[in-house]
Amino acid sequence: MNYRFTALVAATAAVGLFAADSASARDQVKIAGSSTVFPYSKIVAENYAKANTNLKAPVVESGGSSAGLKQFCDGVGEDKIDIANSSRRIKKGEQETCAKNGVADVVEVKFGYDGIVFASDVKGAAFAFEAKDWFNALAPEIVVDGKLVANPNKTWKEVNAAFPGWEIVAFIPGEKHGTREVFEEKVLAAGCKATGADKLIAEKLKAAGTAEDKVKSATAKACMKVRKDNGGKHAIDIDGDYTETLARLSSNKESIGVFGLAFYENNTDKLRVATVGGVTPTVETISAGKYPVSRPLFFYVKKAHVGVIPGLKEYSEFFVSDKMIGEDGPLAQYGLVPLPEAEAKAVRETVKDLKVLGPLS
Amino acid sequence: MSAVAQNPSMPESDAEEAVGRFDNPALMRRRRREEVRFQAYGLIAIALSFSFLVILFGTIITNGWTAFFQTSIELPIKFDAAEIDPEGTRNPRVLAQANYQKLAYQALYEKLGLENPTRQQRRAANELLSRDMDTQLRRMVEADPSIIGTTQSVWGLASGNIDALVKGKIDRKVPQENRQVSDLQIEWIDKLTASGAMQKQFNTGLFTNFASSQPETAGLAVALIGSLYMMLIVVLLSVPFGVAAAIYLEEFAPKNRITDIIEVNINNLAAVPSIVFGLLGLAVFINFAGLPRSASLVGGLVLTLMTLPTIIIATRAAITAVPPSIREAALGIGASKVQTVFHHVLPLSLPGIITGTIIGLVQAIGETAPLLMIGMVAFVVEAPQTPLDPATALPVQIYMWATEAERGFVEKTAGATIVLLGIIAVMSIFAMILRKRYERKW
């Protein structure tokens, strides 16, 4: 009960915007969210503690973007987290929940990009993918001779004559991962369009009596579906992390896995990376926008906690400083794709002025 | 089948039957065969489980023993006064802000014989050293500012990738472009190793360092402290409550429908998946009572709930094992019920209670699932001072290291597993010794 009371006090203090609240018991920043952002957040927390010996190091939890944002939007108060890490942008619904619980002012900080790469065993064959290859390999229905048919492809050779005759076995991130969304949008949906399957799917939906206004969203949804035939052996969801994908690859050498760029860069002696659209994924090609499968990484700061929780603003500013997210910083060394200079400057401004994110559409 | 064997239940022919069986060589042979076969099954079962155990321990130990050693480089560090404290004030704030990493790098260039290193050479050389060298040197200066201006020989940690290469976890035969360590760096490593300036040393940091994103400086200290706090809380709460509940249920409570229901529920609780206790902890201790997330206090409370049924069941079994004659004798000479229990029954059942408690603790110390829900899967850079501070636990640390991308964390994961298994083994052996020593056969 005593704690509820102190939490209440802290919440009131936060609303009243009292700077340097001496009654606040919590003196370290609490962070939760994306497992992709987790390693970066850790490196920053560690260096922050080293650079500010007078402030306490933040505590970082990892549990997924959605879980982190849910905790973040839970309310204002000493027992609520201050920062949510996210490997995707906050959704409209989440923003509304936030506002409903009193977390109206949220500062959105984009701190870099992450590439998503396709890799096979280091001794295996080289792959040069196009988005349409992935669609033809993993979609439940593909276009053959201008008609939509159940996916007949069993080996990569059937997908593209240039590929080896491996059976199609792909380890893709499970539905709970933010990485899956990027894979679906940037690879499967792009392949759907490139093969012309989207038009055929839309026609089919119309013929089946789908309402005109819903055809578009239903088509987009159908384009991102993954096949489940042959006992689901072609596309295997990995709900764990990249270490699990790596273990699965080394037990089945003729398979392909989806990894984050940072993970691949730390395991180049075990993995052979595939090109997409003829571009090899590297920090340079991704920051130049040449490699197509990448996504921005974010963290969200609770403005009401700034000034109440010591070190919150300092941590955020330290995170986006050139020392951390710059090209020679430790985050880039780990595998983060740095922001272009103009964007980095804008982000630093946002953090400095605590610019609040406007309502999303 | 003889006629005798078909009527084994006829009492009047028992004696003759027995004689008949021993007389029948075929029947005897069959019985012997059955016995041999059954023993063989047993042996196979034991051999199988033993070989699994050997494989499990074998892989953990072969993967993990190297985690107890860490590659270090001996460097002649010049604690240059102009670099650390140009104005000579010895102000602690100035000392804390100096660029110690640069001092370490310069000592390394000198050690490698690089006169005027190019940018590329510098970068390659810098990668040999841990990025945490600055912390080590800063602590040295803060402990003894008089070393400023002198040159000290310091053993500093090599970076995680270099350590992995020295231990053979990164294959030298892999082509350079696919390897985390370049040919030039390997050349330097071989040179340093040959001159004795690069050695594997016992890794005390594994036990004393806090969480780190670099494998070479990552340690178990936060997890060890967190696990210790949690075990203390579990012992302080679950032993008194568990033993009291068991004594009351066994010695005082009337046997009726209500106590039956309680008993069934205790047995059910012991079988509830531990993640459910985590959810309960999240709802009750964090959301309702407002206790802080990631705190070992909450972890301890959740594990207490989980351990209680085990302790109650073990204590009840130990109390039931005390023969009724002891109670009757005590009551017979005029002792009250409470005196009987506390003077006679409880001391005699103590070995059983302690064994049960230790088994419950062993279960609790290896538990991960409930801690996931209450925020203990966290990156904690500082030592928890009180049970209210953020902490992790040993099994959680193993889980977190297992998901890291760098090669150095693979052996760290196995090393932490060895530490956890060691603690569990010590606790189990302790329980066994207590049982052997104080156990009474009636």
Structural description of this entry:
The complex is a heterodimer of chains A (361) and B (442). Chain A is α/β, with parallel strands linked by helices. Chain A has 2 domains: 2-113 and 296-353, Periplasmic binding protein-like II (D-Maltodextrin-Binding Protein, domain 2, 3-Layer(aba) Sandwich), CATH 3.40.190; 125-252, no CATH class. Chain A is 41% helix and 18% strand. Chain A has 16 helices and 13 strands. Chain A has helices spanning 2-15, 38-51, 65-72, 92-100, 131-138, 156-159, 178-194, 197-207, 212-223, 242-251, 261-265, 283-287, 312-319, 322-325, 330-334, 341-353, and strands at residues 30-33, 59-61, 83-86, 106-121, 128-129, 141-144, 147-150, 170-173, 235-238, 256-260, 271-273, 275-276, 294-302. In chain A, strands 1, 2, 3, 4, 8, 9, 10, 11 and 13 form a 9-stranded mixed sheet that branches. A two-stranded parallel sheet of chain A has the order 5-12. A two-stranded antiparallel ribbon of chain A has the order 6-7. In chain A, helix 5 (131-138) crosses helix 7 (178-194) and helix 8 crosses helix 9 (212-223). The longest helix of chain A has 17 residues, at 178-194. The model of chain A is unreliable at 8-24 (pLDDT under 50). Chain B has 20 helices and 4 strands. The radius of gyration of chain B is 32 Å and the shape is elongated. In chain B, strands 2-1-3 form a 3-stranded antiparallel sheet. By secondary structure, chain B is mainly alpha-helical. In chain B, helix 13 crosses helix 15. The longest helix of chain B has 40 residues, at 25-64. Chains A and B meet through helix 1, helix 2 and strand 2 of A and strand 4 of B. Strand 2 (59-61) of chain A pairs antiparallel with strand 4 of chain B.
